[in-house]
Amino acid sequence: MNTQKIGFIGLGLIGGSIAKAVRLYYPDTEIVAFDKNKETLALAVQEETVDIACGSIDINFAACDYIFLCAPISYNTAYLKQLKEYVHPGLILTDVGSVKTSIHNEITRLGLEDCFIGGHPMAGSEKSGFINSKPVLIENAYYILTPSVSVAAEKLDKYRTFVESLKALPITLDYKKHDYITGTISHLPHIIAACLVNFVRDTDTEDEMMKSLAAGGFKDITRIASSSPIMWQQICLKNKENISEILAAYIKTLQQAKATIDASSEQKLYHMFEASRDYRDSMPASSLGPIKKVFAVYCDIIDEAGGIATIATILASNNISIKNIGIVHNREFEEGVLRIEFYNAQSSDSAASLLEKYHYIVYER
Ligand SMILES: NC(=O)c1ccc[n+]([C@@H]2O[C@H](COP(=O)([O-])OP(=O)(O)OC[C@H]3O[C@@H](n4cnc5c(N)ncnc54)[C@H](O)[C@@H]3O)[C@@H](O)[C@H]2O)c1
Ligand SMILES: O=C(O)C(=O)C[C@]1(C(=O)O)C=C[C@@H](O)C=C1
């Protein structure tokens, strides 16, 4: 593809990851970026992800092939007016916001439908900022596209092809349907996680035993409670109607669960957990689906200084990138093992063979 120039407004976790993927797959692309954080821009230029760092939305955004709005949702919408003067017939204007109706409404108000295709990579992290961005973040993740009604079919095809070339999986949805679906599978879980963590904080014993003893189950379901407060504040404000309805229906489900427990209804209790297990297990296990597979190996490590560094060096010198590394203790590995997480199955398999070659005991899970 002959992409010449791409603009980014907001260069955090998502903007930074897309910019890095563009740099990886299209090294000659001219990348222009504006972020309110000057240190972010300086780092992005220093790392050669960005060619031109802008102090505002200025003339550097003229003649872009794509402009990606990647700031918190309400800023993306607010910047559209300023961007209008840099719109030209060939431009694909897009965003990465987690809610789509508000930006589509503003696009219609400003008469920008011909160039706007909303975007939303279904990938992310509880960590934010350019510092945590990586080109592989969107790899194998669904990338939802919500085209405006009057956008040309060729533009949508071009954008789909571009998303595919960045190794993500484009899928087209109506923007209202998008907000209803993400309200349930993304926004509701974040609200539940935040409320659950706050509930533990508020009801903990004086000696904070809940905080100390919280184990795998609690940590699995609350990882996302560490996400960016500004991002989630804005999502709740912008998808208010859907979230409110979904929460009301979910509260009913919780009340039913309470009634089943209060009634000591053995059969209903069994069915509740059986049904959830069966449905959860039927969800795609590979990363080609809404739930990303974790690629990890577990390895016995000699209890001596430098043990982890030795393993990290073996992997790095064989070009295997580590996503996460740490000692875990659980019922299966009471003594503790080193858990190493990778970005994909290939790295995980290569690492397992390599470590075995170096006589480490490796467990694949
Ligand atoms: N984090 C996720 O999991 C995730 C996933 C998909 C989509 N999104 C969407 O992506 C967007 C960005 O989220 P993120 O996770 O990258 O957040 P982030 O906090 O990592 O990055 C946001 C960036 O925008 C910059 N910024 C903030 N206000 C600005 C302003 N007024 N003008 C210019 N720059 C500004 C910040 O300095 C930061 O670099 C949001 O709209 C969010 O809904 C997030
Ligand atoms: O993996 C995570 O940490 C995320 O929360 C990612 C996640 C989600 O799945 O809810 C968060 C918000 C987005 O708009 C898209 C993806």
TrEMBL record:
Gene3D superfamilies: 6-phosphogluconate dehydrogenase C-terminal like domain, NAD(P)-binding Rossmann-like Domain
Domain Prephenate/arogenate dehydrogenase: 4-291
Record keywords, A-Z: Amino-acid biosynthesis, Aromatic amino acid biosynthesis, NAD, Oxidoreductase, Tyrosine biosynthesis
Gene Ontology biological process terms in this record: tyrosine biosynthetic process
Keyword NAD tagged: yes
A molecular function GO annotation: prephenate dehydrogenase (NADP+) activity
Pfam families: PDH_C, PDH_N
PROSITE patterns: PDH_ADH (PS51176)
Pathways involved: Amino-acid biosynthesis; L-tyrosine biosynthesis; (4-hydroxyphenyl)pyruvate from prephenate (NAD(+) route): step 1/1
Keyword set includes Transmembrane: no
EC number: 1.3.1.12
Highest taxon listed in the record's lineage: Bacteria
Reactions accelerated catalytically: prephenate + NAD(+) = 3-(4-hydroxyphenyl)pyruvate + CO2 + NADH
Official protein name in the record: Prephenate dehydrogenase
Organism per entry: Hespellia stercorisuis DSM 15480
